[in-house]
Amino acid sequence: MPQENTLTEAEKREARERLKEKFGARTRTGGKGTERRKKKVVKTAKQEDKKVMSAVKKYSPQPLDGITEVNMFKDDNTVMHFAKPSVQFAVKESFVIITGIPETKELKELLPSIISQAGPQQYEYLKRLQEDMKASAPEGAAGDKKKEEIPDLVETNFEEVSNKA
Q: Cα(73)–Cα(125) distance, rounded to whole angstroms?
């Protein structure tokens, strides 16, 4: 047996008004013409990497083995350092692909091994850095190095001393 609806039209309207006040205009959850929920798509780095690598495949790059690190110098005297990169090269297009985990480091953090890779702009920065270090070093520090010279050898025969013991 179907239940009979005991609410009058006025009571139904009042109940609908209260629901609108409580939940807003979107009280409809289903039926014809309702909005569908939009799926939230979260892009990950892996998905982007796959897209990039599939686009790069058309250039048919060849892997370059034996490269242990890659350093890219930026204008703000920082270095993008790849410790163990995967390097590929497309000969026809002169196209280099470097994949790996980059670390952004200051130029002075990678000294002295980075000097042979530095360009003219980085040399200027290194000269300024060296001048700043000389200016900031106390004068007594330079004098202390002279005092720390190797002492003169004592004129004793070490073999005789070791035989006595």
A: 12
- pLDDT tens string for the chain (165 positions)? 556 667 788 998 998 888 888 776 555 566 666 676 677 777 777 777 788 888 888 888 888 888 888 888 888 878 888 888 888 898 888 888 888 888 888 877 777 777 777 777 777 777 787 788 788 776 555 555 556 777 666 677 777 777 876
